[in-house]
Amino acid sequence: MAISASSPNVILFFPEWLFRSWKVDRSNLHWTWYRLNVANTISSFILVKIPLIRYCRMDEQLRMAAENGDVDALYIELAQDPYLLDRIDHIPIVDTPLHVAANAGKHHFAMEVANLKPSLAWKLNHVGLSPMHLALQHKCTKMVRGLITINSQLIRVKAKGMITPLHYLAQTEDPDLLAELLSACPSSIEDTTIHCETAAHMFQSPSGMASTSQQRRHSELER
């Protein structure tokens, strides 16, 4: 195996056949240059692109730690790779450790990650949901309350269909949590879905008549 350097800081490994063309006359000089440039292109892809592909998915050890709520395992992973959460944060649409923890109901682990990398709480996964939306779906209210303490604006994060956590909560039977969200971020009442509906609109039943509990929550929204 022959070795060449395309830059002072990068060592590229080329097959031996690429360098056989050095032993040619001047008429083959252009072909030699072409072959070496092809090799550089391939090597650059191997050295640069493949690491990016590798990090398009969450590290399996980190996923297992999130599923089990193992905070110690999280810090072991970060000790081995301090930029692990940073790489996940650079992916626009991704399942983060917060999503996994929300699915598993591991709010302590979720809060640890959110404290280390708050921006992960804004990420949508491949089905268009944020960690807070998943926490609401799985009735992990401790995680919802915890995320609000980190950043109350997370109440306004828009998932698929531009549904916010407040929109989602407006369709459930949890007036206490609804009141907490409204108190933490009153401006969230202004957010609309792709159908131009606010959370107040979603309190109305399909028949246009609101139940007693819906009327109570509706008045809370309008305050």
Break the fold down into its secondary structure elements and pairings.
Layout: E1 2-7, E2 10-14, H1 29-54, H2 60-68, H3 71-80, H4 84-89, H5 97-104, H6 107-116, H7 131-137, H8 141-150, H9 165-170, H10 175-184, H11 212-222
Antiparallel strand pairs: 1-2
InterPro entries: Ankyrin_rpt, Ankyrin_rpt-contain_sf
Protein name: Ankyrin repeat-containing protein
Organism: Gossypium australe
Give structural notes.
By secondary structure, the chain is mainly α. It has 2 domains: 2-52; 57-222, Alpha Horseshoe (Serine Threonine Protein Phosphatase 5, Tetratricopeptide repeat). It is 51% helix and 5% strand. It contains 11 helices and 2 strands, in the order ββααααααααααα. The protein has helices at 29-54, 60-68, 71-80, 84-89, 97-104, 107-116, 131-137, 141-150, 165-170, 175-184, 212-222, and strands at residues 2-7, 10-14. A two-stranded antiparallel ribbon has the order 1-2. A hairpin with a 2-residue loop joins strand 1 and strand 2 (10-14). The N and C termini lie far apart (74 Å). Residues 1-27, 43-56 and 205-222 have low confidence and may be disordered. This is Ankyrin repeat-containing protein.
